[in-house]
Amino acid sequence: MYDYLVVGSGLYGATFAREAVKKGKSVLVVEKRPNVGGNIYTKKEENINVHVYGAHIFHTNNKRVFDYLSQFTTFNRFTNSPVANYKGELYSLPFNMYTFNKMWGVTTPDEAYEMIEKQKKEAGIGEPKNLEEQAISLVGKDIFEKLIKGYTQKQWGRECKDLPSFIIKRLPVRLTFDNNYFNALYQGIPIGGYTKMIENMLEGIEVRLNTDYLANKEELNKLANKVIYTGPIDAYFEYSLGNLEYRSVRFENETLDIPNFQGNAAVNYTDAETPWTRIIEHKWFEFGKDEDGNDIPKTIISREYSSEWKVGDEPYYPVNDEKNGKLYEEYKKLASLEKNVIFGGRLAEYKYYDMDAVVDAALNKCDEELI
Ligand code: FAD
Ligand code: UDP
Fold it and tell me: Could you tell me the pTM of the whole model?
């Protein structure tokens, strides 16, 4: 008998398992994939850590979480500074003085401010009612047309007029020459890859890969007093109330026999015609070097295509609309009746969780559960 059966070896499961073992509990982790790590899994190819389920950049203001993960890895000095490519014109992101200079030729913050104000006034927008109005009132018409409109429509599969304004509010707008996409105090990529970090978290803990809990539920339940379930909540209840929906992404990977494809980890294609939203060149998360500090001769790129999700696809982003919100609440009621099961993480809580928030949530659960 184990004290805990942890279902899923993503960040939530790995954090819980580590802390439980630290408190003297016995733990078994089951993972249905052939590898640990969940969606932060990185696979080493051509000496490059490829972010298999989408690019992951760790960033947080939470010192507790940063210190916690730093026990298992050292974060490198990577700073996220994506570049926007609009029909061959390159712009700095997030929107800052470099962007405004390239767009309008302005050289001072005052000139940039005046330009944005002028374009706002011309557009005649009062209280923004949708993403298009919100974007124009933040950065003006030109930036909306070239850097936001096409990208957003591709990403969300809807017109900017039909999207809520809050989506764009989190994008920083700065009248300084600061290309750092995040405002976070701590930022970086684990040296050696995310998989290595998770393996360190799970060191000495029994992990059974290729094991689907739901397909072996009865038998596995007999092995432990309590279950920590980090898989999809609707799957746990056999979709009895219907499917929760997701927005999906498709990745097309290519290995190229050249050392440098785009000179940056992320380039966003912001026009409407290019079918992909962005291209990730994985080696630049680690400055193009292998573990011994040598330059890597090849490169691996991933083109990202945003897509509608259908049953059976990999679940990526929860859909935060009323219909799915209500359905989740119904599942949550069922979950509260499962006395020996804790539902945690992005799939079991049907929540868009950044990595730091997932670790924070798992640590808080540990404080409550592990005495
Ligand atoms: P997961 O990583 O999904 O782990 C759940 C695990 O449970 C999986 O391994 C799964 O195989 C396993 N499982 C499911 N069902 C079963 C079952 N029945 N039996 C056994 N095992 C099962 N966050 C950031 O902070 N920065 C970023 O840049 C960032 N980029 C992202 C990009 C994309 C495309 C996406 C989708 C998310 C991104 N995130 C980012 C969020 C980040 O991925 C999550 O915070 C994190 O992966 C959540 O960890 P988790 O343990 O909750 O879930
Ligand atoms: N966005 C954009 N152009 C860009 C990058 C982002 O218009 O080059 C918009 C887009 O609508 C996106 C939102 O800003 O959904 C938030 O961007 P962020 O990079 O935070 O999105 P994420 O991919 O993390 O959801």
Answer: 0.96
